[in-house]
Amino acid sequence: VQLQASGGGLVQAGGSLRLSCAAPRSITSVFNSYTMAWYRQAPGKERESVASITVGGATNYADSVKGRFTISRNNARKTVYLQMNSLKSEDTSVYYCNASPPWQQWGQGTLVTVSS
Questions:
Q1: Average pLDDT, stretch 92-106?
Q2: Distance, CA of 90 to CA of 76 (rounded, Å)
Q3: Mean of the per-residue pLDDT values for the chain?
Q4: pLDDT tens by residue, 16-67
Q5: C-alpha torsion sign, points 99, 103, 105, 111
Q6: Closest CA to 3 of 43, 55, 38, 29
Q7: 85: region left, alpha or beta (phi > 0 left; psi from -120 to 50 alpha)
Q8: Contact 97, 116 (CB under 8 A)
Q9: Is a pLDDT exceeding 80 seen at residue 97?
Q10: Residue 69 burial (C-beta neighbours within 10 Å; 0-12, 13-18, 19+)
Q11: Which of 10, 24, 58, 113 is a good FRET partner for 69, with 20 to 30 A between their CA atoms?
Q12: Contacts of 38 (CB under 8 A, 6+ apart)
């Protein structure tokens, strides 16, 4: 299963973006059974978990994004979101959504570029 993230782009430092990730039809019947997460991978670095959200809505964030990013999900729409505020240049990465722990296949991700 490959989840496709969208909503990335070029933004100035201090700006905001909202990423979205809709579950493909093949998993809509089970989407509500999984903890979902956003990950990111900057050039030359390993992929890291940014935020996760359980089926019940409990959230967890990496220290680097706490207070700036908000993960949410709409179980009816089978979609997970990442609201990113107060963006910094170090947030520049390709962002992916996946389950937590992640499924084997990864989607293409969406590029977020923060200019300083």
A1: 94
A2: 33
A3: 94
A4: 999 999 988 887 778 889 999 999 999 999 999 999 999 999 999 999 999 9
A5: positive
A6: 38
A7: beta
A8: no
A9: yes
A10: buried
A11: 24
A12: 5, 19, 21, 49, 50, 51, 52, 71, 80, 82, 95, 96, 97
CA distance 57 to 16: 22
Name the residue with tokens 């909503």. Answer: 7
Q: The tokens of 63 are what?
A: 């220290």
42, two tokens: 């900057």
Nearest to 23 by CA among 113, 103, 111, 91: 103
Structure tokens at 78: 């089978």
In single-letter form, the type of residue at position 103 comes to: W
**For the chain, how big is the Rg over CA atoms in Å?**
13
Quick one: CA torsion of 80, 81, 82, 85, rounded to 10 degrees?
-160
Tokens of 56: 């019940």
Quickly tell me which residue has 């949410």 as its tokens.
Answer: 72
What is the number of other CB atoms lying within 10 angstroms of the CB of residue 115? 11
pLDDT at 1: 72
